[in-house]
Specification:
single chain, 138 residues, six-stranded antiparallel sheet, alpha+beta, two-stranded antiparallel sheet, 3 helices
Length: 138
């Protein structure tokens, strides 16, 4: 399962706080996808450089993975970097930490692909593959 949580409602400062909070409990990976070539490679940027390039105009979101292809079960915070084209900062956090981030950053909806269409749902409809497990979003 792969579910996406938009962050469009957050300000730049809130996105930067989110980056800092996620880095405290997660693992940071920065990837550059070179245009015209297959694949990507890991690069290093300072926290100051990353924070300076977090923008509300970029594609920023959470991705929840559970039993999805070859991805580990984790929630990934994704920041596309504004002044570094084709460069993305990923922070993997344990799925059990999702509730805390949902409450602190006011996440109210999620979406997933159903066929070729994005379907949006309120958090009250979010559950995991583990039988009867619901997240406490209220």
């Amino acid at each position: 399962m792969e579910r996406f949580f938009p962050l469009k409602h957050l300000t730049v400062e809130q996105l930067r706080d989110l980056y800092r909070d996620a880095c405290k409990v997660g693992r940071l990976l920065i990837e550059y996808d070179k245009p015209g070539t297959e694949g990507h490679y890991e690069i290093t940027l300072s926290d100051d450089e990353i924070l300076k390039n977090i923008s509300v105009e970029c594609q920023n979101h959470f991705v929840f993975h559970e039993d999805f292809e070859d991805f580990p079960d984790a929630t990934t915070v994704v920041f596309s970097l504004s002044q570094h084209p084709f460069t993305t900062a990923y922070i993997d956090i344990d799925n059990i930490r999702l509730d805390w981030f949902v409450k602190k950053y006011g996440l109210v909806e999620w979406w997933q692909m159903e066929g070729s269409e994005q379907k949006y749902y309120p958090f009250s409809k979010f559950s995991t593959l583990e039988p009867m497990k619901r997240h406490n979003f209220n």
